[in-house]
Amino acid sequence: MIVVYTPAGGEPEHYDAKTLLTSEASIVARTVDMKWPEIKNGLLDEDLDAMRGVVWVLKKRQQPTLRFGEFDPGVESMVTRYDKDETESWFDAAFHLVGVDPETTAERVAIGLREAAPDAVADVEHALAYIEKRRAEAESHGGKGPGLEPQAEKSAPARKTSAKKTSPTSEPSS
To answer: To pair with 29 at 20 to 30 A between CA atoms, which of 11, 23, 48, 114?
Structure first.
């Protein structure tokens, strides 16, 4: 999960929660008084404390003296977005639905994902290219989803965020 922090008047900064070391995750947990699983779920829900804690600890790599109280971003300045692996898992699960119902075509799935991606992923260019790749693969399989079952543990987690919901096929699977 990527936390995108946009300081007032500044450019967006991307912070990848997967890059945290165990010691750093422990610091976040102690600081925001949450267990690590709660923090991970908090990132999915765009919980302000979870996002602030992760960004603060990752910012400390470049600014070791930065105190938590000194990093107090605005409530609208942080959002979470899927990283590349989470994005691909979400899209793989969506394209697996192609052919399950006659109306669930590769093109319809691609349209839904193209609409949802900009508000849900960190790397939109990668996401759009991956959608086209998966659409072409699905169409080359006679309009059926490619043979491999999506793996639940690799599917992108469900999000309760500001990302727009466009259709049932644009939802990440659990």
So the answer is: 11
